[in-house]
Write a structure and sequence with these properties.
Blueprint: E1 5-10, H1 13-28, E2 34-38, H2 43-50, E3 62-66, E4 68-70, H3 80-88, H4 108-122, E5 133-137, E6 161-164, E7 174-177, H5 179-182, E8 187-192, H6 198-206, E9 224-230, H7 231-234, E10 242-243
Parallel strand pairs: 1-9, 1-10, 2-3, 2-5, 5-8, 8-9
Antiparallel strand pairs: 4-7, 6-7
Helix pairs in contact: 1-2, 2-3
The structure holds ligand LXAUTJHC.
Length: about 250
């Protein structure tokens, strides 16, 4: 499994967010259907601040799913969908019906099965769902989506969506796309900002470990792999990177 990667370093989160929005314009233009999966955490604010201001964005054909989601009510500040909805729907950028949401009332195993069905409807062809674009974050421990270091979910190859009930980062119950689905995407972009991500970023991007961190296992089979990082997060990198003000 291999994909070439492009590491883009931006002076600040603001320039990174602008470039990420431009990437969304570029990747979605000219298609009547654009299937995107978003992560939660710091990405929500970063994207929500910039996206409503982005010129040339036509979201009419967008469907927005989640790389992972926390099993909490949508009204809970920990709900990734809840946060995007509060930030993006009032701007008229996306409507609630464009989001593919979990059913937070279900037990976590059933929520994963239910979300798998919803993704199967979004991707009616047999085989693995291949998102047009996935936007992933990383935790300071190297987790991505809700795939955590050393967790058995890293080995799951027979599911589209997996449940997790012992997430080391609260809340403990979540659902997550599995690695095969992440690696089937047409484009994957990682976003990492702040010096708190610098050490783990160096491990992910430069160190060949025998038991790779979850984020280091992301390598789209046929797609592109982009890293959008700001200067503080890139501080420890010594590998070749592209420095950008904006893309
Ligand atoms: O728990 C989660 O953490 C990661 C990273 O979040 P960040 O706040 O450190 O950027 C996030 O990508 C994932 O979607 C989320 O559920």
């Amino acid at each position: 499994m291999s994909s070439s990667r492009q590491i883009c370093v931006f002076p600040s989160p603001a320039e990174l967010a602008l470039s990420l929005s431009q990437l969304l314009v570029h990747e979605s233009q000219g298609t009547c259907s654009f299937r995107l999966a978003l992560s939660g955490g710091s990405l929500v604010q970063l994207l929500s601040r910039e996206l409503p201001k982005t010129a040339g964005l036509n979201t009419a054909g967008w469907k927005v799913a989640f790389c992972d989601e926390r099993l909490v009510p949508f009204s809970d500040p920990e709900s990734t969908y809840g946060e995007y909805k509060r930030q993006l729907v009032p701007h008229g950028l996306l409507s609630e019906s464009q989001f593919v949401t979990i059913d937070p009332a279900l037990p976590v195993e059933e929520a994963a099965v239910d979300y798998t069905k919803k993704l199967r409807e979004l991707f009616p062809d047999d085989g693995l769902p291949a998102f047009d674009l996935l936007i992933l974050g990383i935790g300071p421990d190297g987790h991505t989506a809700s795939l955590f270091p050393g967790h058995p979910l890293l080995q799951v190859t027979d599911k589209v969506v997996a449940p997790i009930s012992d997430s080391p980062k609260p809340p403990p119950q979540r659902i997550t796309l599995t690695l095969p689905v992440i690696n089937a995407a047409k484009t994957v972009v990682f976003v990492a900002t702040g010096e708190g991500k610098a050490t783990i970023l160096k491990r992910i991007l430069q160190e060949e470990e025998s038991d790779p961190l979850p984020a280091a296992r992301v390598s789209p089979v046929r797609g592109k792999l982009l890293w959008f990082v700001d200067e503080p997060a890139a501080r420890e990198l010594t590998c070749p990177v592209e420095k950008h003000s904006v893309l």
